[in-house]
């Protein structure tokens, strides 16, 4: 399939590893000029070296507004603009809904919503002017079906979906699409962390927790990062120009809800 991504300029957040890294690699393989960001410049540089293809590394902790604004300025200067924006923030710590401090709620909301929207707002005018833009939010299947012991993620990520759906209707006529991708259980370091936390919480072994999780997935296995990244590459492509305001699930059939 011809994606039309050759020469397009992309910024992928949280791209030093995991889902963000996979998306950045997938876009680069299609010929996009890719800038990646993570909490440490060392992490971004290591990821850029792995991907190759002149990927540019940057630093950005989405919980720090000064780094967010500096990222937009520096990437715009380096690439001349951004056509594809992948909003991918790190997952919050696991835990129950009760007992979360107000400071933790505020910090998570800033890092997982407010500052992601701030980045998009600064890059949107250029997309609208060029009549082409792709904004892709990496969310969680917890948006559709809350995940036990992930209360902060379950509560905050839906805000990004509501914002994206509203924005999608505002910018569709300008050739800008706004979509979200909901990963199921994809084999990442983050998933290993969650399996370990669940094992500790329930008194079971990590192997038992992982086996039980796989048993609840119709595909019978965890997904691969490359499989998830392929969905993001499609949404970024010219072929997906009529898809906007949508949530695309990549979960092996795990979520049974029709909404």
Automatic annotation (TrEMBL):
Signal peptide: none annotated. Gene3D superfamilies: NAD(P)-binding Rossmann-like Domain (3.40.50.720). CDD domains: BKR_like_SDR_like. SUPFAM superfamilies: NAD(P)-binding Rossmann-fold domains (SSF51735). Belongs to the short-chain dehydrogenases/reductases (SDR) family. This is Short-chain alcohol dehydrogenase like protein.
